[in-house]
Amino acid sequence: MRRASNxxxxxxxESSDDHNVDAIIQKLIEPKNRxxxxxxxxxxxxxxxxxxxxxxxxxxxxxxxxxxxxKICGDVHGQYTDLLRLFEYGGFPPxxxxxxxxDYVDRGKQSIETICxxxxxxxxxxxxxxxxRGNHECASINRIYGFYDECRRRYNVKxxxxxxxxxxCLPIAAIxxxxxxxxHGGLSPELTSMEQIRKIPRPTDVPDQGLLCDLLWSxxxxxxxxxxxxxxxxxxxxxxxxxxKFLSRFDLDLVTRAxxxxxDGYEFFADRRLVTIFSAPNYCGEFDNAGAMMSVDxxxxxxFQILKPAEKQRGNALSLPGASRVNQNAIATPPxxxxxxx
Length: 342
Description:
This protein is α/β, with parallel strands linked by helices.
């Protein structure tokens, strides 16, 4: 399934309920609703988004094959005003194409607004806007870390279950221009063929172990070679050698993932062959981290837009010239400090 590289090509492929979706989007992004206060979405509007988006997710494969240009974002975690800042910097759909790497709910104050805007954009622009599943798009996790309580307090438990049914249908991974592998967590010792991802059945819950679990839960680790135990108590950690073998086996250039707080919003690993992107600045109000968004242009040049908690922005760039290796002259980010994990 190839996405049209030009957003205008999507014009004749939009949802048949454009008017409803446009009204919901307008409500979510209008200036008076950008102040961090709950937005009064009707339950029937939310259910409409869930039903429509679920059908679209199931009509598209678990492993998306996408084309640049593309904006790639990491964890958002209910930080709705920061999500709006990302769109302000990168351009609201359909002026730019987006891929989000998961973890839209929990911990932040506005998980409902966050996931609803993402689902609305998916319904409105199904061939240009993509969201992958994160480990928090799982009932057993978001039952504990905030999303369940937010749904119960503002609406009802039945609506939470409806969201979870949508989460069970989300795609798992994406490959951009045959060279950039994207998933929420990381690699898996069970992954020997991309066909394994394509054959993951949906709807499905996230199992406690195995390929799907690893793709959503695993982490890179500087201090090891091969596979190691994960401090999360789930899945594995993997060394730079695993990244190198993976890229060589599948003729890829870069692994792009999220799942961990990193100080500058993005951080390289394994000689710039893996990058972690985290898009929630000042995470939980406890970390003094920046957020980042990676822009991949049609030549696979990758640049980073930074969301500072203090509203500052700066940029960095790396290159995948002609779909080759990352430019080793790109400016490096500081090493991970203290292995901050979420």
